[in-house]
């Protein structure tokens, strides 16, 4: 009997506890409990999502090169003498024919005058010899002159004519040397500093000094070495002049200037496996100067469709490259990709993505694969994603 009473008492206590819990649930409301549990779940992370870009592109290869002048001239004296004037500022731009230096012209002007006098004397002698030769011809017709005298008159006329030609050549040489006293620019371009100034004596010959240097500015070359595969693919055909080529300078992220292939060397360097190529670019603004470093991008082949994304959306997992893709249910998926070349600030994806795919471009650190996210649609940009509709 006591055991049965204890069992009944325990059952009564259990029922009382259940009833109390039910009363509390009814008092505060079941919806309140449910809301508390839901509130404990973390909200979906908000991330910027952009649709990949699909467009037609042309494949490019990028190389390192140097800017070179088409014309590089060392200005040396062609006559000896004393420099009496310098007519340019260091680093100035000059046109073809502009006066750069003046060498004392007085000795050469005197030589011109002397040669002119000798020519006049030779012409006078030639006039007399020509008249005497004509007279000898008339006398010979009348058989009134000895054959010996006739031959001497003829020979004197020929010698006098030769003397005139020699004197005329000497005068021309003297005039050329006088012209050399005015040192002019052989091409248009930019001069360096004056290596010799007023008062210095210059001489000609093997030890002739460099007075200054002059480089042409526009157009200008960019020289670079391409690998064998690029040469065979793009530059080995007669249509190489139509191959697009662009350059970018050290302070630029893109390729600001477009040019054309001007020449390809006649042999491959077997030690490096490359061949030297020169491209020609317009340089009307004079920004490009010989010696500057340049990034050269060479393209070719038929345009083809490609998927492009921002480099900022590409992550690295050891040796793999991947992006975070957002599916139709707004869940994050891990997607391994293979990278191609850059095109106008965007990275080509050769494998792993399809047109229409959406990828996370901002907020990758807040999500993991299979997480639900709240996507904020933005536009794909080469520098950074911008909100759709913003300027």
TrEMBL record:
SUPFAM superfamilies: HlyD-like secretion proteins. Residues 113-181 form the Multidrug resistance protein MdtA-like alpha-helical hairpin domain. Residues 72-213 form the Multidrug resistance protein MdtA-like barrel-sandwich hybrid domain. One of its GO terms (cellular component) is plasma membrane. One of its GO terms (molecular function) is transmembrane transporter activity. Residues 305-366 form the Multidrug resistance protein MdtA-like C-terminal permuted SH3 domain. InterPro entries: MdtA-like_b-barrel, MdtA-like_BSH, MdtA-like_C, MdtA-like_HH, RND_pump_MFP. Residues 219-298 form the Multidrug resistance protein MdtA-like beta-barrel domain. One of its GO terms (biological process) is response to antibiotic. It is found in: Cell envelope. It comes from the Bacteria. Pfam families: Beta-barrel_RND, BSH_RND, HH_MFP_RND, RND-MFP_C. PANTHER family: ACRA/E-RELATED COMPONENT OF DRUG EFFLUX TRANSPORTER, CATION EFFLUX PUMP. Belongs to the membrane fusion protein (MFP) (TC 8.A.1) family. This is Efflux RND transporter periplasmic adaptor subunit. It comes from Paraburkholderia madseniana. The lineage of its organism: Bacteria, Pseudomonadati, Pseudomonadota, Betaproteobacteria, Burkholderiales.
